[in-house]
């Protein structure tokens, strides 16, 4: 299985690579407007496996999420998932927070990502836009060690109170801890 | 059957009940509130859930759910196991919906591999049939325990009687009753036994009568209605904002179902309805699940009718294990078997999120591959985890006894919440 041809299609928002999924087609013009409005905050747009990923700068994340939720052409009203990713000890920036948005009225799905460096392991909270983010962010904080600024109740959620460290980090051993 | 729960609903006088609630609420003041710990071994918390209740008399002022008692680091484990080994782990998440977990996981991997379109029709149909049976089994456990929590004990036995028949079908299919691990990346490991059609047909013939029986026990039961109507009301907007999906969302008037919004396994070719109720209370969620069972029954019948003999695995020898017979005669099949069993298959780098409509809501698997034979990261979006977040919103101002009804109406499984 060669991995060469499976590399993601990187495209700008206003010239997305043609994809057979309606998701991409229906959202193309809205994505173009997103880029127009936030410009440099939209770092990268990737269409792969029929899914669209938008990399957003940390500082603009809350505004972008609010725009995506309220823009009538998009209406991404459901934050279906949020999780942290440790890209490995050598990766820079090491962490990512991944948001899976879904638009119930339009049936689009969109993945937002924001990069978080290890030495400043913090991302803005989305609780103000999507109240459902509260527990997801607590989980990412607990298991991945990403802090969420202005989170109303940032406590551990799954691991015992006396456990030190963040189990889903790549440098956390599987056993013998 | 559908006339049962609409025209005959008894109109009850709620005024006295509401008066008691208001009286109790008026007396409420935080200065004489006490904190009570409910769980983690309370029978009505459906597992090891602990609720930190702030009570003023009988009225709930605030609820803080405390979870994590079952946390076993499944996502961490999945990073260390090969793709095909992880199917076994998914069984143990929502242990009332193992077929659904298997399906969500294998479909996410198939999406990454780019073989989602190669799954043969027979495998697709069997996947639909078995997951819909699973939805019935899961709803039966919900119905039995929900009724038990509210004091209607006999229903529990009836529900488990029917569920037993579904588990017997699973046992005939794959030997496992709850930890099935039956779906594989690329299709199914082996075909269903010859008795399968008869077993399912018998069950589908018997089930409508059983469903009618459940309706006669609860739907128009005045005690049940008094305990559930107007209790734990969640508006559609709040439900979406809190990320609530599945029957709980549809009970709040939002007709969102992943099977309809993003059809998979050919769901777009089946004829079924998405039951929706507007009231958003415990009773509405009850009605949605009851009607959903009828719809699942319809899907099962259609799936069984279109089940034709044919291949059950995709034609990808580097991903799918060969048949036992083939292995005995063909050198390349033997080699593929050895390589798959010893090293697994590698998945092209990339990421995929695949959501299915589990029995409790949107069940999503997010997998990142780095090109090796083990996932780099696997995150599970469990519907129970997200739906449980609505508990404080639902319980504030309710009576202590309502908390039990509300937990039951959300249909949570702690194995999935804690993972």
Shape of chain A: globular
CATH class of the largest domain in chain B: Mainly Alpha
Helix content of chain B: 40-55%
Structural class of chain B: mainly alpha
Helix coverage percent of residues of chain A?
10-25%
Into which percentage range does the β-strand content of chain B fall?
5-15%
Q: What is the mean predicted local confidence, pLDDT of chain A?
A: 80
Instruction: State the secondary-structure class of chain A.
Output: alpha/beta
Rg of chain A, alpha carbons: 17 Å
- Interface with most residues: A-B, 41 and 44 residues
The biggest beta sheet of chain B is recorded as: 3 strands, antiparallel
Report what the structure shows.
Mean pLDDT of chain A is 80; it is low at 1-22. The N and C termini of chain A lie far apart (36 Å). Chain A has a 6-stranded mixed sheet with strand order 1-2-3-6-5-4, covered by helices on one side. A two-stranded parallel sheet of chain A has the order 7-8. In chain A, strand 7, helix 3 (133-144) and strand 8 form a beta-alpha-beta unit. Chain A has 177 residues and is of the alpha/beta class. Chain A is globular. Chain A has one domain (8-149): Beta Polymerase, domain 2, CATH 3.30.460.80. Chain A is built from 3 helices and 8 strands, in the order βαββαββββαβ. Chain B is mainly alpha-helical and 419 residues long. Chain B is 49% helix and 10% strand. Chain B contains 18 helices and 6 strands. The interface between A and B is large, with 41 and 44 residues.
